[in-house]
């Protein structure tokens, strides 16, 4: 049997080369994704940046810690839940006064700065804090007047005058940039005017003395909850930071962990999709490779080979090819992973420090997965061949009379039923689950596998349907294309499989994101009745930027009488659900009267006008969502309060947060102003007046439609590039696999094509026939992929409808058309080129004689 295996490998090398290519590329894909995922588990150690030279940093409460009920119901055990506060608290004035007795106290302030020709992420600080980074002057001097500044980097030189949102300033000095921020330093007095709140400060004193002072200060106060990082915490939540813990006083200290979370999600999704595509294609390729050899198995059975001998031969061949191809795939993966990481860094999908680490488990996972799939795919196909009698095997070698086995019927039907049942259950119990990325990424895989298993049942009628018109054209070409595809069901299904997975994945993922994006845009459009929306430039929530009271007064004065102007702030509320889960919900602080005039919330119960300082508007996702019921919440700065539910919104796509009044978010800056024009007002004049008001402060004026476009998910470049990476890698692999399968299928049809030559067909007629069959198989695969896409998107559309968001299904027809055309070109080239080479070498004219 080993000698037979070696001879088979030598004589049927095109089939085994095709299997080798498919498996090695699949293993390389799994290995590369596994290496990227493993490398995204840990971030490099990061020390303090802005306060690397500070002796002690005292930080106000920035977390909310709430005691919860123990999971096991034991009354003597207590547990806590923690969340970051939307509006951190400043260090109390009384504590600051006590700390001044220990040594010099420097209050830190950070605020967004918008400067003409300056960096978009420019941030302001008091000059006295520059020494703690430390920043050192490399030109000019320190600021002394309110209109003097020092900047980091080389984008401005001493003597330059800059227009900022708070007036014109003169650069009097520069410091070298340290890489973690673009800074502008004002005098301490001017910084206090621009940012009255001081969330943290530096104390030049012994850390032990600072902690003792903090404990003494807390001895007479009650606790709301706080944390302790690297030193001493307090009942009031004030923290003493020393050593490496000082990094928690930097801006966005959790950016590395957030980047890791994002990369884990991205590479996890990419790995899941890539693993599915690899396993699917490899199993299909090996099964097809075995199915091609039914005539050979029939001859072996006639010669006396037992079913067990045939299975052992197939297993030996699959083992040899599987080991070699899996090893080659691991080597390819080791070369491809660093290039993938470099691309992710270049496109901003990963932080600059991200590199591929030294991990071994991805190689083991890829190698053994590839080998196992190869063996399973080959053995599953050989099981039927081994059970078939000699004469029956020879009879079935030419025409697929029974392409579906009971096992294939059972597996395909079970997967299809599972997809239907899980969809119905999700629609009944929680339609919002169908809108989550992990759901609309995984559901197509279930349907693709089910349709692929049942493909032999669908291929014959689809092939006859597609070829109905060509078969009625003059000549026998259309009829031969139809009959060849309908007779060779296994071959047609195997070649259509890469097209199926390509079209189905692209259509389902791109269609899901586009449909969900359209639903979100519909929500924004329907609940915004304002004609204009005015916001600060940049990410106001991240930089704590907003409009001051003077700017708000000018905005109100710039519109005609009778115009509704609604100013709102971004905040958050926290609620303890079931006594164990501390849930954060985004919230907006609004003035009830103006807000009711400029918005149309999707309410399930209650009225917006009933909102007051003692109430809140929630959505149906809250555990308590009955109008009139009271709910205990913690506000954005950590204050606990009992509020009455004034109205309840529908769930929607999941972005319907809570609404409170400004009194329940006193420290949240106004970051959005909605303007609804009165009857007869000139929109162009109002827009011009609003732009004039916010020009100095760097704000931006949106019309309603431009606001919808600006806030729609399509504007998220990171999401687009991440999806492009997931689909790009998977589609590139399936494209190569399509070409590979076509080469395998064409090389196995030399005798069949030689019969056409002997019957009088010219070389060009044979090539046209081969090209026509390739195109028809691509169309069949595309139709099956479109079927999967439609089923997935209909499920999402139903979920959106149940969530009160009626939006049309978006099918990416241009993308699917481009993919289908690319598959067609690949299929034609991969089938015509081998056939043409055979024609040129005379193989077709002699194949019939040899056999």
Features of the shown structure:
single chain; 851 residues; alpha+beta; seven-stranded mixed β-sheet; six-stranded mixed β-sheet; 25 helices; elongated
Descriptive account of the structure:
The chain is an alpha+beta fold. It is 52% helix and 15% strand. The protein has 25 helices and 23 strands. Strands 5, 6, 7, 8, 9, 10 and 11 form a seven-stranded mixed β-sheet that branches. Strands 21-16-15-22-14-23 form a six-stranded mixed β-sheet. Strands 4-12-1-13 form a four-stranded antiparallel β-sheet, with helices on one face. The longest helix is centred in the middle third of the chain and has 40 residues, at 307-346. The radius of gyration is 34 Å and the shape is elongated.
What is this structure's SSE topology?
Layout (H helix, E strand, L loop, with lengths): L1 H10 L1 H27 L16 E4 L3 E6 L10 E6 L8 H8 L4 E4 L2 E2 L9 E5 L10 E4 L7 E5 L8 E4 L2 E9 L6 E5 L1 H7 L5 E4 L3 H12 L20 E3 L13 H37 L2 H9 L4 H40 L14 H27 L2 H7 L9 H24 L7 H17 L1 H12 L10 H11 L1 H38 L5 E5 L3 H4 L5 H9 L6 E14 L3 E10 L1 H7 L4 E4 L8 E5 L10 E5 L5 E10 L8 E3 L9 E7 L6 H13 L3 E5 H8 L5 H31 L2 H9 L4 H40 L10 H29 L1 H8 L1
Parallel strand pairs: 6-11, 8-10, 16-21, 18-20
Antiparallel strand pairs: 1-12, 1-13, 2-3, 4-12, 5-6, 7-10, 8-11, 9-10, 14-22, 14-23, 15-16, 15-22, 17-20, 19-20
Task: Summarize the model shown.
The chain is α+β, with helices and mostly antiparallel strands and 851 residues long. Helices cover 52% and strands 15% of the residues. The strands form five sheets. Strands 5, 6, 7, 8, 9, 10 and 11 form a seven-stranded mixed β-sheet that branches. The protein has a six-stranded mixed β-sheet with strand order 21-16-15-22-14-23. A four-stranded antiparallel β-sheet has the order 4-12-1-13, with helices on one face.
């Amino acid at each position: 049997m080993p000698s037979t295996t070696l001879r088979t490998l030598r004589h049927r090398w095109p089939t085994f080369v095709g299997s080798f290519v498919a498996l090695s590329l699949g293993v390389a894909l799994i290995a590369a994704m596994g290496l990227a995922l493993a490398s995204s588990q840990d971030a490099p150690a990061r020390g303090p940046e802005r306060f690397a030279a500070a002796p002690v940093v005292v930080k106000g409460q920035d977390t909310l810690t709430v005691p919860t009920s123990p999971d096991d119901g034991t009354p003597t055990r207590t547990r806590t839940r923690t969340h970051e506060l939307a509006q951190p608290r400043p260090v109390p004035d009384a504590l600051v006064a006590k700390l001044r007795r220990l040594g010099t106290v420097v209050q830190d302030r950070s605020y967004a700065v918008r400067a003409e020709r300056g960096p978009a992420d420019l941030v302001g600080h008091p000059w006295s804090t520059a020494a703690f980074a430390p920043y050192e002057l490399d030109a000019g001097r320190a600021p002394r007047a309110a209109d003097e500044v020092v900047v980091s980097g080389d984008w401005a030189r001493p003597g330059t005058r800059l227009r900022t949102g708070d007036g014109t300033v003169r650069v009097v000095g520069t410091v070298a940039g340290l890489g973690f921020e673009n800074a502008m330093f004002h005098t301490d007095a001017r910084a206090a005017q621009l940012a009255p709140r001081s969330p943290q400060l530096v104390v030049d004193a012994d850390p032990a003395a600072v902690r003792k002072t903090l404990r003494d200060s807390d001895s007479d106060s009650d606790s709301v909850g706080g944390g302790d990082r690297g030193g001493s915490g307090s009942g009031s939540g004030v923290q003493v930071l020393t050593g490496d813990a000082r990094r928690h006083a930097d801006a966005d200290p959790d950016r590395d962990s957030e980047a890791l979370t994002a990369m884990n999600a991205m590479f996890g999704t990419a790995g899941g999709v890539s693993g599915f595509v690899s396993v699917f294609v490899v199993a299909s390729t090996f099964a097809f490779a075995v199915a091609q050899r039914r005539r050979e198995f029939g001859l072996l059975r006639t010669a006396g080979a037992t079913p067990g001998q045939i299975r052992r031969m197939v297993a030996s061949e699959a083992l040899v090819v599987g080991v070699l191809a899996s090893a080659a795939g691991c080597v390819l993966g080791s070369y491809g992973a660093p290039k993938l990481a470099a691309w992710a860094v270049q496109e901003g999908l990963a932080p600059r420090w991200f590199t591929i680490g030294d991990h071994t488990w991805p190689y083991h996972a890829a190698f053994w997965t590839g080998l196992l799939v190869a063996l399973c795919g080959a053995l599953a196909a050989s099981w039927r061949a081994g059970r078939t009698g000699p004469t029956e095997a020879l009879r079935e070698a030419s025409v697929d009379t029974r392409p579906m086995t009971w096992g294939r019927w059972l597996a395909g039907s079970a997967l299809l039923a599972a997809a239907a049942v899980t969809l119905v259950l999700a629609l009944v119990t929680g339609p919002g689950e169908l809108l989550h990325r992990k759901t609309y990424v995984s559901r197509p895989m279930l349907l693709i596998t089910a349709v692929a298993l049942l493909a032999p049942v669908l291929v014959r009628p689809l092939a006859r349907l597609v070829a109905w018109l060509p078969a009625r054209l003059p000549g026998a070409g259309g009829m031969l294309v139809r009959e060849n595809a309908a007779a060779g069901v296994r071959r047609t299904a195997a070649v259509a499989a890469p097209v199926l997975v390509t079209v189905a994945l692209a259509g389902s993922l791109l269609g899901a994101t586009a449909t969900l994006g359209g639903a979100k845009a519909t929500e924004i459009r329907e609940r915004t009745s304002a004609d204009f929306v005015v916001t600060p430039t940049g990410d106001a929530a991240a930089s704590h930027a907003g409009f001051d009271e003077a700017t708000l007064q000018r905005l109100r004065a710039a519109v005609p009488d009778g115009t509704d102007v609604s100013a709102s702030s971004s905040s958050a509320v926290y609620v303890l659900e079931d006594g164990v889960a501390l849930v954060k919900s985004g919230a907006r602080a609004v003035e009830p009267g103006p807000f009711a005039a400029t918005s149309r919330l999707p309410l399930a119960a209650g009225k917006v006008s009933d909102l007051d300082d003692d109430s809140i508007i929630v959505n149906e996702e809250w555990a308590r969502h009955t109008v009139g019921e009271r709910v205990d919440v913690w506000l954005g700065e950590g204050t606990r309060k009992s509020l009455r539910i004034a109205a309840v919104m529908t769930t929607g796509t999941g972005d319907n947060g809570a609404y409170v009044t400004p009194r329940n978010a006193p420290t949240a800056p106004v970051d959005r102003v909605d303007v609804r024009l009165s009857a007869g007002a000139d929109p162009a004049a109002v827009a011009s007046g609003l732009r004039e008001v916010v020009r100095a402060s760097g704000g931006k004026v949106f019309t309603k439609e431009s606001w919808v476009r600006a806030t729609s998910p399509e504007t998220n470049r990171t999401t687009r590039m991440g999806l492009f990476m997931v689909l790009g890698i998977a589609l590139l692999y399936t494209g190569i696999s399509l070409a590979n399968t076509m080469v395998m299928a064409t090389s196995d049809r030399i005798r069949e094509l030689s019969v056409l030559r002997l019957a009088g067909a010219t070389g060009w007629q044979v090539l046209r026939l081969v090209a026509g069959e390739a195109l028809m198989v691509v169309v069949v695969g595309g139709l099956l992929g479109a079927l999967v896409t439609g089923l997935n998107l209909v499920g999402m559309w139903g979920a959106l409808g149940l969530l009160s968001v009626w939006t049309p299904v978006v099918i990416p027809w241009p993308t699917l058309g481009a993919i289908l055309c690319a598959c067609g070109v690949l299929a034609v080239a991969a089938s015509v080129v081998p056939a043409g080479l055979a024609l040129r070498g005379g193989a077709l004219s002699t194949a019939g004689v040899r056999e």
